[in-house]
């Protein structure tokens, strides 16, 4: 089996998921994991599909026929994570300002963490006014990472950019 990673984007409208699912199924693929969302009127997502190696090119070609309805990019997936990697959850909450994602991802990168999932949201701060920024991160942590040093760098950053960062 071959793993394909599909990225899809297009103007949001009914039937987009069904269109992709129909193509995947018609070409012997199995929809395994996905993260799909509508953001500012645009539907976007990432989908992991497994398919027999001899049908992967055929499936990829059929997915490109969806152009006009959706923009589809297809990559071949890999299982690059080491068996001894572990996952770490990180929560961020604070007043919104430019650069928060850049700062957090910079610290994670400096410690060789790989972001598996990142969800962010801004919303009105009910009592204080302004906007709040919230992020939820799941990162792969190689066994070689010094967790105390990572925690110290995240605490230093939280103080610098005035957000709460919870690691757990």
TrEMBL record:
Transmembrane segments: none annotated. InterPro entries: ACT-like_dom_sf (IPR045865), ACT_dom (IPR002912), GcvR (IPR016867), UPF0237/GcvR_regulator (IPR050990). It comes from the Bacteria. One of its GO terms (biological process) is regulation of DNA-templated transcription. Residues 5-77, 89-168 form the ACT domain. Pfam families: ACT_6. CDD domains: ACT_GcvR_2. This is Glycine cleavage system transcriptional repressor. It comes from Microbacterium hydrocarbonoxydans. The gene is gcvR.
């Amino acid at each position: 089996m071959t793993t394909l990673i599909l990225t899809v984007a297009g103007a949001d409208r009914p039937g987009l998921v069904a269109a992709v699912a129909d193509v995947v199924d018609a070409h012997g693929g199995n929809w395994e994991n996905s993260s799909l969302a509508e953001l500012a009127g645009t539907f976007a997502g990432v989908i992991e599909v497994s398919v027999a190696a001899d049908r992967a090119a055929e499936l990829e070609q059929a997915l490109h026929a969806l152009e006009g309805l959706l923009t589809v990019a297809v990559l071949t997936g890999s299982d690059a994570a080491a068996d001894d990697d572990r996952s770490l959850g990180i929560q961020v909450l604070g007043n919104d300002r430019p650069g928060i994602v850049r700062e957090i991802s910079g610290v994670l990168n400096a410690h060789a963490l790989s972001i598996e999932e990142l969800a962010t949201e801004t919303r009105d701060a009910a009592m204080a006014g302004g906007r709040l920024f919230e992020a939820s991160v799941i990162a792969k942590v190689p066994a070689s990472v010094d967790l105390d040093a990572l925690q110290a760098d995240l605490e230093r950053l939280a103080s610098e950019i005035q957000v709460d960062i919870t690691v757990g």
